[in-house]
TrEMBL record:
Any Gene Ontology CC annotation: membrane
This protein's record includes keyword Nucleotide-binding: no
Top-level taxonomic group: Bacteria
UniProt-recorded name of the protein: Alpha/beta fold hydrolase
Pfam families: Abhydrolase_1 (PF00561)
Alphabetical keyword list: Hydrolase
Ranges of residues in domain AB hydrolase-1: 19-246
One biological process term in Gene Ontology: acylglycerol catabolic process
Entry's transmembrane regions: none
MF-aspect GO terms: monoacylglycerol lipase activity
Species this protein is from: Paraburkholderia antibiotica
Entry-linked InterPro entries: AB_hydrolase_1, AB_hydrolase_fold, AB_hydrolase_sf, Epox_hydrolase-like
């Protein structure tokens, strides 16, 4: 594995073969994909950390979905990748949808975990409140947010049976810088839905039966708007899909890539 810094973005690259680009969500990092790396055997795996998240620097301009899309397109260009499979989680699925529509020549397929079109209007003030808390209290505020996420965004099964998963999710959020996390929240709060009917590549949508963000009914409706897409709902799973149900997610990915060869 080699780690590069491209356009101030930390990017892990390993393997050879068809490229797969993995996009994490709010409070995530390249490690969102570590539990499912077995699904990418025989592929060149590219794991960027979005601007302002984890090890990537916060740019001078405010974070937005558009900035994420343009940054990722630039990173792929600098890596010499003309077409890639895209895998994404949560906020990253919004980025992936817009990337597939704005730069269709770059995208070979989409695999979206805990997907959403955009936050519902009633949910946006709460996301902005998280940004304010992160700025006001700094690392203590980010810790408070991490604890709330662990409580509210994981399944009952995960909380009861997977303490290491709980620790991993908490750590993922707590490693974010307060200002980077705040701006990431604002980017999500300002996200607009993509015209997903324009997506013309094989698409897999995976969510949990206890996911309050990528709610099963909403994900099913989303799948109905994307021609030929497949929707899978995992039992006993909350929003942190690849952390809560890694084996099941890897199985879904392997079957998906086999079906589109």
């Amino acid at each position: 594995m080699t780690t590069y810094v491209i356009r101030n973005v930390a990017v892990e690259v390993e393997g050879e073969g068809q490229a797969v680009v993995c996009i994490h969500g709010l409070g995530g990092s390249s490690n969102n994909w570590t539990p499912v790396l077995s699904a990418f055997d025989g592929m060149k795996v590219v794991r960027p950390e979005l601007p302002g998240s984890a090890r990537s620097a916060l740019p001078s301009q405010p974070l937005s979905i558009e900035l994420y899309v343009e940054t990722l397109a630039g990173v792929l260009s600098e890596l010499g990748m003309s077409k890639a499979h895209i895998v994404a989680h949560s906020m990253g699925t919004i980025v992936a949808q817009h990337l597939a529509i704005r730069y269709p020549e770059l995208v070979k397929s989409l695999a979206l975990f805990g997907p959403l079109l955009a936050p519902p209007e009633q949910g946006r003030p709460g996301i902005r409140a998280r940004a304010a808390l992160s700025r006001e209290k700094g690392i203590a505020g980010v810790q408070e947010i991490a604890d709330a996420i662990v409580k509210g965004a994981t399944s009952a099964e995960t909380k009861a049976q997977r303490p290491v998963t709980i620790a991993l999710i908490r750590e993922s959020v707590m490693r974010q810088s307060p200002e980077g996390y705040a701006q990431s929240c604002e980017a999500l709060a300002g996200a607009l839905p993509a015209e997903v009917e324009r997506i013309a590549v094989p698409t897999l949508l995976v969510t949990g039966d206890e996911d309050g963000v990528g709610q099963p009914a909403a994900v099913t409706a989303m799948g109905e708007r994307i021609a030929g897409s497949k929707v899978t709902i995992l039992a006993g799973c909350g929003h942190w899909t690849t952390f809560e149900k890694p084996a099941e997610c890897a199985t879904e990915l392997k079957a998906f890539y086999k079906s589109i060869q």
